[in-house]
Amino acid sequence: MKDIKLVNNPYGDSKVxxxxxxxxxxxxxxxxxxxxxxxxxxxxxxxxxNGLGGGLAVYGLYPEYPEHYAFHIMYLSDQGKxxxxxxxxxKFDVAFDETVPTRPIPAIVxxxxxxxYFLKVGKHNPEGQSEDDYVVExxxxxxxxxxxxxxxxxxxxxxxxxxxGYPEEIGEYFRLEEYEGYLWTAHGRFPxxxxxxxxxxxxxxxxxxxxxxxxxxSSYGINKRYLEQFGYHCTMQTDTEVIAYAVDLLxxxxxxxxxxxxxxxxxxxxxxxxxxxxxxxxLLRTLRQVYGSLLLNGPFTVxxxxxGEMIGLTDRIRLRPLxxxxxxxxxxxxxxESAIRLICPDLDRAWIPVGGEPVxxxxxxxxxxxxxxxxxxxx
Amino acid sequence: xKTYLPPKFVVERDEExxxxxxxxxxxxxxxxQYYDADDDCVRSxxxxxxxxxxxxxFCPTRxxxxxxxxxxxxxxxxxxxxxxEDILKQAETGGVLxxxxxxxxxxxxxxxxxxxxxxxxxxxxxxxxxEPMELITYLGRKPDAVDIDPQLGRVRTPMAPQVRLDVPxxxxxMSYGAVSLHVQESLARAATEMGTLWNTGExxxxxxxxxxGRNTIVQVASGRxxxxxxxxxxxxxxxxxxxxxxxxxxxGHLPGEKVSAEVSMTRMIPKGTDAxxxxxxxxxxxxxxxxxxxxxxxxATNYTKPVSVKIAAVHNSAAIASGMxxxxxxxxxxxxxxxxxxxxxxxxxxxxxxxxELALASVDSRLRQEGIRNRASIVIAGGIRNAGDVTKAxxxxxxxxxxxxxxxxxxxxxxxxxxxxxKCAWGICTSDLALTKRINPDIGARRAANLLRxxxxxxxxxxxxxxxxxxxxxxxxxxxxxxxxxTDTELEILGVSMAGx
Lengths: 379, 501
Prior knowledge:
The structure holds two protein chains of two kinds.
Chain A: H1 4-8, E1 18-27, E2 33-34, H2 36-43, E3 54-59, E4 69-75, H3 78-91, E5 93-99, E6 113-120, H4 131-145, E7 149-153, E8 158-163, H5 167-173, E9 180-181, E10 183-191, E11 204-206, E12 209-215, H6 220-228, H7 239-253, H8 258-265, H9 270-273, H10 278-291, E13 300-306, E14 309-314, E15 323-327, E16 330-334, H11 337-343, E17 349-351, E18 359-362
Antiparallel strand pairs in A: 1-10, 1-16, 2-9, 3-8, 3-10, 4-6, 4-7, 5-6, 11-12, 12-13, 13-14, 14-18, 15-16, 15-17
Helix pairs in contact in A: 2-11, 6-7
Chain B: E1 9-13, H1 23-27, E2 33-36, E3 41-44, H2 54-58, E4 64-68, H3 81-93, E5 98-99, E6 114-116, E7 137-139, E8 163-165, E9 169-171, H4 181-194, E10 198-199, E11 216-220, H5 229-234, E12 237-241, E13 252-254, H6 261-267, E14 275-277, H7 287-300, E15 307-312, H8 317-327, E16 331-335, E17 344-345, H9 346-351, H10 356-369, E18 377-381, H11 387-396, E19 400-403, H12 405-411, H13 433-436, H14 441-466, E20 481-483, H15 488-494, E21 497-498
Parallel strand pairs in B: 9-19, 10-11, 11-12, 12-15, 15-16, 16-18, 18-19, 20-21
Antiparallel strand pairs in B: 1-4, 2-3, 5-17, 6-20, 7-8, 13-14
Helix pairs in contact in B: 4-14, 7-8, 8-10, 11-14, 12-14
């Protein structure tokens, strides 16, 4: 059995610490666009990373296989590939698989093999278990039990490309200018206590959730212990993993809407809550009473994405930067405004959201259809 | 019988400073200081001195010094002076040795082996003088998940009663009779001012204190003193007392001399009769019996108040606590081996129970392993000395702490361990009306509130240093603790890593 910790966190620190640049772009009308602009934008924030991790997530990536779980898997050895492919054949119906095309460039040294698989659960999952839960468990199996294999992403019609290098180098290596998607997120990493490891780069993903994250969650210890009660095991020891699991728990298992999730992860202060209308006070008080252990405390900005939706969120006193830009149906989220302006100089609107206030882009509510033309929280 | 006990202290008086004002002779309740009219001077019977510092504090010319009696026994690790003196006392009385306050032995104090973290470089510390810093804590049972009406955005999950604390420090159970009414009034007013709770202990609630009911925990103990409908309705929380850290497995005995007219009324027993609390609750011989009492109290209070169950920290606390949560307890109160008392057999106080740090860590871990930690709040008691202890307790997993001794020290107590004598010179642990006047509730309330205010500022400083701005981000967050000087087993039970790792 492989111990992910030994790879991701070689010194056994209580968590992996890093700082970063993050960028997200979404066409809320669902129109797909290439990764050229996104890579140009994240490259503009080169100095926020140190070349030890970069990556991108793309949604609307595989319209030819919209209902298949698209697995991006990294292999460090042939044995790992053999074992995992046998495992996949045993546990899924494999519709198609191939090696992810790459372009050798000098900056990318000794890359692992990355392959993609389009999978259906079919009749493999036991009765009573949802397909999503089945997939989550198999991903955990591959990451923790099979040797030299690591799942980058496992959602439908989306994929994660990541590795050791600056994000623009990763983009060039994986030929991302050739892909199109309606939602892209990107991440440049500056880890302080881990050497570069391909699996440790962002975006972090489970099912079709991806998280790119800039920050350090000082509440990590209790967030992790809380999630353990619900069967989530934080094998990667990264803050980012905690965010992905928290969102999965709240949205998929507790059926809470995304604005409520934001109120849990970055709740208003008690002093603000007591100035709100009675009904809203009850809601927010209840959320803090029940989900206080999921409050993400400490500096962070995250871009959380899943099928059809992109959410930008900062900690409640906004200790890490986030700038929002909109242009027609496009929503941009970025660590720095300059990166947005570089690829879209004539924004309709650009602003810095209040700490803890989520910025949501959603295919169901394209920006152009909204009166105010803003994506901020309503009501 | 002549006593063979040597004096503990030597009381010295600087004759040049003494103005013979007799303040010390009036203040001393242990018959140490007296005025010798023949010689026109003030003298001391050192052998009676308990080291309470009442005379030292009130001497207007600072003429009095109290020193340890430099009497040397022959060195012997086994036969220490305390052991010898205890035998002498029993040889003279033939009874159980009684004592007051908490265990004073050198068992490990784990708080002193735990160190807190702080932010450097990779995350910013937060300045509590400039940023909000939240200590608000809600005690009570929480559901596993919140269900929200998607149309109306309203909470559909029914919530059990929750009690808000502005500072996660409450005053521990100290009954009327054990402490004076003025002490209770001081604590009740301080709790009200600071947005926290005080606890009646097992002696009922005096009519003059009903107005502080919103900040009161009413206790139901084995003697059921003062328990009736209006009493249960008056409190904010109802606490079933199973055990006490200073005397696990032992009941209580308030001697008839202390049962004055007022105590008699509050406890609802005849004046001058002994108030005996049986060792167990005689309707609780098992966990299902506890469940019945919990639900009976919830029924009696119309499901408007959380029910707390207080136990002494003993060997299998984790399993017991798990059962208590399943039996319906909304709050688990754990009282450690250093928990104090107004009177307990010394042999029990000094030898029974386990350190609260270990009990807390194992109970919190067990409830999490079983996925029921959200169903009850954990409150701990027993030797909490300062804001550092409070913060470490919360990081280990406590929702809030009780303080008893620290609260009494804020009123003047010097921990001289004479509570059981009823002669408390500070007027705290006594029902002598002449002595209880020594606590002025106006001043007492201010002193106790000041203590909580000081601690809450210090807790905020620590939180800010850790880079979090809400207490719930520290609660159970053991990654912010590191151990020093602990064995692997101790670290494992505490769930913390060794410093440097």
